[in-house]
Write a structure and sequence with these properties.
heterodimer, A: 180 residues, mainly alpha, 0% strand, B: mainly beta, eleven-stranded mixed β-sheet, elongated
Chain lengths: 180, 462
């Protein structure tokens, strides 16, 4: 048995807290980064970069202070760094707009876990072709072009349908949250 | 909807789907900067898009990913490009996994969310049996399982209840990752999933296949070589390839009584037979190696590698109301209240395909594991085939077939218990078989006039 006050215990507990905090904010960080970049594929890379950066700064972590604002700040810096790295190879928003979107996103930040839970119920309310299209796009990961080809529809029609389904899901989530 | 709204929708779509050219993106930037409503619409859409990707497990959490050497690629391989983070977090998650346990109220179906813990709690560990864990921290019964979370065991059996409505059993050796409340990643292991209506769309991805449930019960097995087998016990599932650059995401649907194997190189292979015990979630696709089985394997001569139909071998499963065929809801029953004859009760039996009654070139080979009595049940409306008369003897005992609704709906329904709603009478024929012997059974005589496929059962001889 370790003695009371063993520094290894304290380090282990602190590391455990850090891991819990880091894994607990992943969905929020992803949504935040997506909004700033406008590109889901890039967002996955930047989430990875952000996790790495946070991991490298783990020794600075103070469990008595809120984790999320710190994580957002690190994510923001990683978005800017990614922009600079990929400015020639990828189409991304300019830095000024990234800054504005970051501020607006933080203003509207709320409990994304609640939203995720509401989303599950809202998806279950989708029926017929709407549900199939969400499954095709997000469950099976099919591109809009591939779905369009299979349904013999123009891609912009499929994209517009997905837009409307997402809008409906957003409204459903808001209604669910308003009831709670 | 006005043209301006249409344009905004189109711009947001283009950004989200990555279909923007530079001019479109710059035009969109101007709209975003100058119009708060556009900015709000974009952020709302992007947030729902991100949540949908997250919920469907398309963004692999840091603990997940294909371990090095398993050939993971495409969207699930990205997190392993930095092993330092992946392995570091994976190791620490094992510490973290034991930190917060939650209680689960099954009756109320209460959904508890894990705030500030390791992701979101999405499932509960209901049962473990003979589990040898492959992780340093074993999971306790009633532990809440989170997304992300890895479950590894060297052997044994686990049962998980997902809040989304899926009941999942896992047989080791297994390496499973919970990617979300509706999506699992199987690196290895045998999984059986029973899905309620609300959980339709529950998905299991393997190294070479994505299986999406469309209702009821199915099994997925990934063996040590990376081969995936998918078996549908009830309802139907959609199969597709994981999204990647070089392989088209073809879609195939399997229904009840169908199964398919996918080799590590992507080639399809037939799953000839699936063995199962009544009341047990366990199943297997290869020849049975358990000591107490009588029927070791079954195969036929008429289906190629592209066939998706499988024979079901039910060990010790022949009882009153036992399903008779893979592809029909009909049941075996005793002709009166005394039930099936004692010498058949608890026998191993095979569910064949009723559709095969019309095949005049059919040969079914049954291999027995021990000294056995092999039985064939033949519809009394059929002529006795020569192969049956030559090597089997009629026991003089008859049993009944209680026909269910087929095609659905029909005038028939099954009843519960022996001696009720018997529609057809079958004669029981018998022969002896030696340990390890393979016995070839033939076709029925009447071609398109045949009424019902024969049944097959076996019991051990002393």
């Amino acid at each position: 048995m370790n003695s009371v006050g063993d520094p290894r215990d304290a380090t282990r507990a602190r590391t455990g807290d850090f891991v819990q905090a880091l894994t607990g904010v992943q969905s929020r960080l992803y949504a935040y980064i997506c909004s700033l970049l406008g590109d889901a594929a890039s967002a996955r890379d930047v989430l990875q970069d952000t996790n790495l950066a946070l991991w490298d700064k783990a020794h600075d972590y103070d469990p008595t202070r809120p984790f999320l604002p710190w994580a957002y700040r690190v994510a923001y810096l990683q978005v800017l760094a990614y922009r600079k790295r990929c400015t020639r190879s990828r189409l991304l928003f300019d830095e000024e707009l990234v800054n504005e979107l970051a501020e607006e996103t933080l203003r509207g930040d709320d409990d994304l876990d609640l939203r995720l839970e509401a989303l599950g119920d809202c998806i279950n309310k989708l029926t017929g072709s709407r549900r199939e299209m969400i499954d095709d796009r997000y469950l099976r990961g099919e591109s809009v072009d591939r779905i369009a080809g299979r349904l013999h529809k123009p891609p912009n029609v499929v994209a517009a349908t997905l837009y409307r389904i997402r809008k409906r899901l957003h409204e459903c989530i808001e209604a669910r949250l308003a009831m709670e | 909807m006005g043209a301006a709204d249409d344009e905004i929708e189109g711009l947001i779509d283009a950004v989200i789907e990555g279909r923007c050219d530079e001019a479109t993106l710059r035009r969109f930037e101007i709209r975003l900067r100058n119009d708060p409503a556009v900015r709000r619409a974009y952020l709302d859409q992007m947030r729902v898009h991100a949540l949908l990707e997250w919920q469907h497990g398309r963004v692999e959490p840091p603990v997940g990913g294909a371990p090095p050497g398993t050939g993971g690629r495409g969207y699930w391989s990205w997190s392993w490009r930095r092993h330092r983070l992946g392995w570091g977090l994976a190791a620490l998650m094992l510490i973290g996994a034991g930190l917060v346990l939650f209680t689960w109220t099954l009756g109320a179906g209460r959904r508890e969310r894990q705030r500030g813990g390791n992701g979101i709690a999405v499932a509960t560990l209901l049962e473990t049996r003979d589990v040898v864990w492959g992780t340093a921290t074993p999971l306790d019964i009633r532990a809440r399982l989170t997304s992300p979370q890895t479950i590894r065991c060297l052997s044994g059996f686990l049962r998980l209840a997902f809040d989304s409505g899926a009941l999942v059993t896992l047989e080791g050796p297994a390496d499973l990752r919970i990617l979300s409340g509706r999506r699992l990643q199987a690196i290895q292991g045998r999984i059986t999933a029973r899905i309620n209506k609300e959980a339709k769309g529950f998905a299991i991805e393997t190294p070479n296949m994505l299986v999406v449930d469309q209702g009821t019960e199915f099994g997925v097995e990934v063996d040590a070589s990376g081969k995936t087998s998918v078996v549908v016990f009830e309802g139907l599932v959609d199969l597709s390839r994981p999204q990647s650059v070089d392989v088209p995401a073809e879609l195939k649907q399997l229904v009840q009584g169908e199964a398919l194997g996918v080799e590590p190189d992507g080639k399809l292979s037939r799953v000839t037979a699936v063995a199962r015990r009544p009341g047990d979630d366990g199943w297997s696709t290869g020849p049975s190696s358990e000591r107490d089985v009588v029927i070791r394997s079954v195969y036929d001569n008429i289906r190629g590698l592209d066939s998706t139909k499988y024979y079901q071998v039910v060990h010790q499963g022949l009882v009153d109301d036992a399903l008779a065929y893979v592809d029909r809801p009909h049941e075996w029953n005793g002709l009166d209240a005394s039930g099936l004859p004692a010498f058949l009760r608890g026998a191993d039996y095979i569910k064949p395909f009723n559709e095969d009654k019309w095949r005049n070139d059919l040969e079914i080979t049954v291999e027995v594991a021990c000294a056995a009595s092999l039985f064939v049940f033949i519809d009394n409306r059929e002529k006795t085939p020569a192969w049956l008369a030559e090597s089997f003897v009629d026991t003089g005992v008859d049993i009944g077939l209680d026909e269910g609704s087929w095609p659905d709906p029909s005038m028939f329904t099954t009843d519960r218990g022996p001696g009720l709603s018997i529609n057809q009478v079958f004669s029981v024929w018998q022969r002896a078989a030696e340990p390890g012997e393979s016995i070839r059974l033939g076709a029925l005589m009447g071609g398109r006039n045949n009424r019902a496929m024969y049944g097959i059962a076996a019991t051990a001889r002393p």
